[in-house]
Amino acid sequence: MRIDVVTLFPEFFTSPLQVGLLGKALAKGIATVVCTNPRDFTTDRHHKVDDEPYGGGVGMLLKPEPLFAAVESLPQLPDREVILLTPQGEVMGQPLLKELARKSQLVLICGNYEGVDERVAEHLATREVSLGDFVLTCGEIPALALINGVVRLLPGTVGKEDSLREESFETGLLDYPQYTRPREFRGWQVPEVLLTGNHAAIAQWRREQQIRRTQSRRPDLYRRFLEGGGHN
Fold first, then answer.
1. What pTM was estimated for this model as a whole?
2. For labelling alongside 127, which of 22, 140, 150, 232 has CA 20 to 30 A away?
3. 76 and 42 both lie in a single domain
């Protein structure tokens, strides 16, 4: 997979793309991330990428010309998705990440300032994506989260693929509690069922814990689980 990031701050990605599983995956060529700065495509001597909004208002907007030029300069692979990171987009979730992981190329446009000219959303991006119902200082943060979430789903990134199937959200539920040594820590015990070696009982306990945790912490997720045919 090729991931192109259109960003005013390429240095934002330098360290995160070099560490952990993500760094190893990129080093192995499982995916390639290329940053392109729209400022390099400006035509004025000040390399201006933003301007005041028509109709007035607070702040500045990213101009369409540099963004269009930056994206149009990129190689175009089959099944490409051009994504604008914006609070107005669909909220990032595991189903979306799984869908994007099947693409051959992702182009991520990072918004900044008060946003971007609407013509970028209407005529350049193929979809808009948000990290959640809150506002950040830049689109680089959700872009990095999207890169991380997508690349870890690509074959070869995670050693044990079973762990991808058993983790949070894959079953529509939050993850179950997990424990490791020591068996007792400051008087807090590991649940006895996990020490029995009875795999059926452990699986049942974990399922019950997933349901209880989701019901108490994420009632919205629990409702979707029930609507999708989930049961106790």
1. 0.89
2. 22
3. yes
Q: What average pLDDT does the chain have?
A: 94
The answer to whether the Cα torsion of 172, 170, 99, 86 is positive or negative is positive
CATH code, domain with 174: 1.10.1270.20
Contacts of 205 (CB under 8 A, 6+ apart): 176, 191, 193, 194
Which helix (H) or strand (E) segment is 87 a member of?
Answer: strand 80-91
| Burial bucket for residue 11 (CB in 10 Å: 0-12, 13-18, 19+) | exposed
6/118 same-domain check: yes
Residue 108's H or E segment, with its range, is: strand 105-110
Q: Are residues 147 and 173 in the same domain?
A: no
- 209 lies in the same domain as 108: no
Domain residues for the domain of 213 are 168-227
Instruction: Encode pLDDT of 144-173 as tens digits.
Output: 999 999 999 999 999 766 555 555 566 889
